[in-house]
Amino acid sequence: MTNKEKQTEEIIAEAAREVFVEKGMAGARMQEIADKAGINKSLLHYYFRSKDKLFDFVFSKIMGKIGGMLQGIMQEGVSIEDKIGKFVDTYTDLLSKNPFLPNFIFGEITRNPDGLIKRFASADIKPNQLLDPLQRQLNKEGYTIHPHDFILNLLSMVIFPVVARPIVERIFFEGDHKAYKEYLLSRKLSIVDFVMKALQGYK
Amino acid sequence: MTNKEKQTEEIIAEAAREVFVEKGMAGARMQEIADKAGINKSLLHYYFRSKDKLFDFVFSKIMGKIGGMLQGIMQEGVSIEDKIGKFVDTYTDLLSKNPFLPNFIFGEITRNPDGLIKRFASADIKPNQLLDPLQRQLNKEGYTIHPHDFILNLLSMVIFPVVARPIVERIFFEGDHKAYKEYLLSRKLSIVDFVMKALQGYK
DNA sequence: ATTTGTATTGACCATTTGGTTAAACTCTTT
DNA sequence: AAAGAGTTTAACCAAATGGTCAATACAAAT
Question: Residue B68: which H helix or E strand, with range?
Answer without folding.
Answer: helix B51-75
